[in-house]
Amino acid sequence: MNKTIPNSxxxxxxxxxxxxxxxxxxxxxxxxxxxLEVEAAYEAAKIDPSFDKEWRxxxxxxxxxPSPLWFAERMTTHLxxxxxxxxxxKVYFKRDELNxxxxxxxxxxxxxxxxxxxxxxxxxxxxTGAGQHGVATATACALMDLxxxxxxxxxxxxxxxxxxxxxxxxxxxxxxxxxxxxxxxDAMNExxxxxxxxxxxxxxxxxxxxxxxxxxxxVRDFQSVIGVEARAQMLEAEGRLPDxxxxxxxxxxxxxxxxxxxxxxxxxxxVGVEAAGHGLDTDQHAAAISRGRxxxxxxxxxYLLQTTQGQITEAHxxxxxxxxxxxxxxxxxxxxxxxVSYVAATDNEALDAFQICSRxxxxxxxxxxxxxxxxxIKRAPTMAADQIILMNLCxxxxxxxxxxxxxxxxxx
Length: 412
Ligand SMILES: *Cc1c(COP(=O)(O)O)cnc(C)c1O
Prior knowledge:
single chain, 17% strand, globular, tryptophan synthase activity, Trp_synth_beta, Trp_synth_beta/beta-like, Trp_synth_b_CS
C-alpha cells in the first residue's frame, strides 16, 4: 500500500502506480505476475531495517557516500562578472560524480540487486543505452556473485566499445539487440522478452525512473539518498534550503533523487534540463517533455517523442545518457502540475559548460550534468547574490573526453 499524504507533491504513486494520469503498468498479461512479485518484495524490503542497513553499508563503504556538497566559488565569481550589481546566485554542486563507477546509477542498482537476492533470484538482466547502467549493474553483480546479462542495441555496442569491454571485464554477458533501430528502446524490449521467458530465476534491473510500477517509485526512493543528503548538507552549510535545484533529465532518476525530498518545500524551485541536441526546433533532440506528447513506452504512460502516427522517434543528444525518447512518469506529472519547470540545453551549450567547469573548478563533468550546468550559467546571473542554486553533478566526464575532443576538432 502506498500511503497517501494529503496535499503533498510526495504522495505519488497511488495504488495503481499512477502519478495523476501517468505511470501505471502497461504490460503483457504474462509479465503481470512478475511485476506484482517485485512490488510485494519491495514493499516488504523497504520497511525491513536489515535491508536498509545492508544497502547503507554498501553506499558508505563501497560507493563512498555521502557525496560532498561543494560550494563552486570560482564558478560563482565568474558568473557574477556578467551579472548586474548585487546579482549572481551562489552555486553549489552535489558531487555524485565521486561515487564508485562515476555516477549516481550505482545507488539504485545496489538497492535492486539486494532486492533480487532477497527474492531468491539467481540471474540479473538489464538494458543499457550508452552502457553506463550496464556497467553499474555488472559491477554490483560482480560484487554479489550473480550472473549478469546486459541487452544493448547493436548500434550502441558498436558506438560504445569501451563500456562493452568494461562490462565483459566485470563478468557480464552483453547481448546485442538487432531489432528496430537497434538502440536503447529495442534493448529494453529484448530485456522484457527475456524476463517473460525466464520468470522463475531472473530479476530485471532498470536504470532510471521508468518502466512499469513499481520501478519508477522504487528507483526514485533509492536515488532520494541524493536529495536527503543534500538537504542536510545545505542546512549545515547555509542554515537554510536552496532557492533553486537544477538537474539533467535523461529518464529522470538523478533529478527525481535530488528533487523528491524537497517537493513539499514551497520556497525551493526546481528545474529539470532536457537535452535540446541540435535545437528544439530540429528533429535532433531528446526533449520528451518540452516537445513530446503522452503515450505508452516500456510499461508506463508518459511524455514521449513520437510521430503524429504514434511511432516512437529516435532521440538525439551529444550525451549518450540523455538520449532516451521518454521520461519517467513522475516528471510528466510534476510538469503538468507545474511544480517543476522543464527547460532544455543544446549540445553546444553543454560543451561550453563542460569546458568552463573543467577550467574553473578542476572538475571534468559528464556531458549529462553539463546540460544542467548550462542552465545554471543562464540562471545564476538573474538571481540575487544572496540566493542559492544547487546543481546535481551526477557523473564525471572521463567517459566523455573522446566525444568532446572530436567535437572540438582535437585528434587524440
Ligand atoms: C544515465 C545518466 C544520466 C541520465 O539518467 P537519469 O535517469 O536521467 O539520471 C544522467 N547523468 C549521468 C551521469 C548518467 O550516467
